[in-house]
Amino acid sequence: MRSQRKNTPQIDDFGPIKIVMAHVEYVSFHVKFIFENTGPETVVIVKAKYRDCQALRGAAVIVAQLQLYCQPAAPVVRLAWAMSIPDDVKTKKVKANSNIELSGGDKLSGETFFNVVEPGDSEALDLLTTQERLTFHFFASETNEYIYSKEIKWGETQRLECAQIKSLAIEHFETGVENFDFMLAKESVMNETEI
Predict the structure, then answer these.
(1) Cα separations (Å) of 49 from 10, 24, 138?
(2) Which residue from 15, 44, 52, 113 lies 20 to 30 Å from 32 (Cα-Cα)?
(3) How far apart are the first and last CA of the chain?
(4) Residue 184 falls within a domain, yes or no?
């Protein structure tokens, strides 16, 4: 067993947790986590094969984007993310921002979903309207062992977009949904999008 650095997160630190999306290769979900020095923030937990996580360690770049899908059964807010190593790390500068189109061809990518009428998900979105970073914690799916964390800037543009997306999602829930079924709406989004 590899030694753990002091203060590294453990998978149990994030429990009890509700896994909102599962894929054959990995699990990705969001969770509110209270850090001693900074207070609560929304983080993304990724469980993937150890070798896949290690292959992307170091110079890999994470791009994350919030999206709103107004399905007939419910509004669905999706946080899609992709992690890859730029073609030429030394000369190519890549910034994570919400205008980059995500593609299913990236080396490691995932998604997590927010239900705006579920208090925990609503609070997680509220935190994304104020926090200035988004942290991804990577764990080995084989052992639940912590591997590393990566942080991306969650800038003013992303915070404003998050507030607008949440507002539009609530409006859709209040005016456009007759038979609410978030799981059905989420499944429909998963079928029409790529990760």
Answers:
(1) 16, 11, 10
(2) 52
(3) 32
(4) yes
Name the DSSP letter for residue 24: S
Query: β-strand 133-140 against 39-48: which pairing, if any?
Result: parallel
Q: Give yes or no for residue 92 having a pLDDT over 60.
A: no
Report residue 137 as tokens. 């914690």
11 found inside a domain: no
Q: Give the pTM.
A: 0.75
Q: Which H or E run includes 150?
A: strand 146-153
Report the 10 Å Cβ neighbour count for 55: 14
pLDDT tens readout for residues 2-51: 444 445 666 555 543 333 333 323 444 555 444 444 568 888 888 888 88
Amino acid at site 111: E
**Tokens 């360690």 found at:** 57
> Which residues, at least 6 apart from 101, have a Cβ–Cβ distance to it below 8 Å?
none
Domain count, the chain: 1
Q: Are 116 and 126 in contact (CB under 8 A)?
A: no
Count other C-beta atoms under 10 Å from residue 173's C-beta. Answer: 17
Cα atoms found within 13 Å of the Cα of residue 3, Cβ hemisphere only: 2
